[in-house]
Amino acid sequence: MAEKVLQIRSLTAGFLTEKGFVKATDRVTLELDRGQTLCVVGESGSGKSVTAMSVMRLIDYAGGFIEDGEVLFSGSDLVKKKQQEMLKIRGNRITMIFQDPMSALNPVFTVGDQIAEALRIHKRMSKQAAWQASVEMLRRVGIPDPDMRAKQYPHEMSGGMCQRVVIAMALACNPELLIADEPTTALDVTVQAQILDLLRQLKQEFGMSILLITHDMGVAAEVADRIAVMYAGAVVEEGTVKEIFEQPRHPYTIGLLKSIPGLEGERGGELYTIKGVIPPISQLPSGCRFHPRCPHVMEICKQREPALLASPTGHKAACWLDEPGLKGAAEAETAASSHALKVTIGSKTEVTL
Ligand SMILES: Nc1ncnc2c1ncn2[C@@H]1O[C@H](COP(=O)(O)OP(=O)(O)OP(=O)(O)O)[C@@H](O)[C@H]1O
Ligand code: NI
């Protein structure tokens, strides 16, 4: 069995509002093997960032809190840690990068100084050693002329270059886990691909694990080992990239795959959209949270919540269609209602939906 760097168990986190406690994640369970990349995908508001913020215990500072569950990092529960203890972990053993690199950088310090600062705090390096290490980090993230660049301020660099600096900062302390929340969303497509390549390469070099959050299935196809699909605060499907793309089990996942833009399907280029909107988690429907939008809804879906069940290979889905006995009827329905749609993701994965 591979060693687990992160085990999120039944994590319920949310915010105190005028209406009381409002959940943003609902019993989220996720696991990440050491050296692997887990992508968490889902529409806006599905609870991806709140999950990440909970792992970092940054949720405490965003007006929220963890109501229940465990976040085991290398076996110890971060939920039970004091913020004082988290200071030694955050920015050191677990680091995080965000969508907007500018907001992660301080405009009044040179980028070299900012990377060096992390090393001085967490690794107690001397000023000179930290500076040298930060120039070396800039080189490793593919910044040309790192000696000169280290002396520059963030505003003197492009967005893509700044994201490289942020990655250099995040990796300087050699973290066990990197959490990346939509790290390429703000960048243009070419730069996006370069940053994804860089993350893939650095994961190998540094032997770290990555939890990557994205709403983009194409990004997940590029970098993930495993993919977890979240819907309205809950994980509805989880499996290897191959399982998710070639044998998706949850109708929500199938909908997400069908709505990947820029793919040649047999539908004349028209983009598929999942009907309806994601409900606020405070107003979840009865039964399966996806049932009002599900093209295969059955009576039981309206009444009872399906459990997230694993197949023998570990591919998990929370859907009544998987229930033996219910499956036959549903398959007949599915065959009648769906047209075959072939999509190609990048150069690797071909899926028939
Ligand atoms: N500071 C906050 N106060 C109150 N509610 C919040 C706060 N931050 C997030 N939420 C709520 O928590 C839920 C989950 O939000 P979250 O940011 O985790 O979604 P997400 O999947 O990351 O979406 P996106 O793709 O838009 O980033 C949403 O309903 C959101 O409104
Ligand atoms: Ni988010």
Short description:
This protein has 353 residues and is of the alpha/beta class.
Describe this structure in words.
This protein is α/β, with parallel strands linked by helices and 353 residues long. Among the domains are: 107-174, no CATH class; 249-352, no CATH class. It has 13 helices and 14 strands. An eight-stranded mixed β-sheet has the order 6-7-8-3-9-10-12-11, sandwiched between helices. β7 (177-181), α8 (189-206) and β8 form a beta-alpha-beta unit. α4 (111-123) runs parallel beside α7. It is globular. Nickel (II) ion binds at residues 48-49, 181. It is an enzyme of class 7 (translocase). This is Nickel import system ATP-binding protein NikD.
Mean pLDDT rating: 89
Query: Helix-strand pattern, N to C?
Result: EEEHEEHEHHHHHEHEHEEHHHEEHEE
Give the C-alpha Rg.
21 Å
- What gap, in angstroms, lies between the N and C termini? 32 Å
Helix count? 13
Summarize the main sheet. 8 strands, mixed
| Strand content bin | 15-25%
Q: What small molecules does the structure contain?
A: adenosine-5'-triphosphate, nickel (II) ion
Uncertain runs are 335-353
Helix content: 25-40%
Give the spatial strand order of the biggest sheet: 6-7-8-3-9-10-12-11
What kind of oligomer do you see?
single chain
What is the tally of beta strands? 14
Question: What does the overall shape look like?
Answer: globular
Coarse structural class: alpha/beta
Catalytic activity: Ni(2+)(out) + ATP + H2O = Ni(2+)(in) + ADP + phosphate + H(+)
Keywords: ATP-binding, Cell membrane, Ion transport, Membrane, Nickel, Nickel transport, Nucleotide-binding, Translocase, Transport
Subunit structure: The complex is composed of two ATP-binding proteins (NikD and NikE), two transmembrane proteins (NikB and NikC) and a solute-binding protein (NikA).
GO molecular function, one term: ATP binding
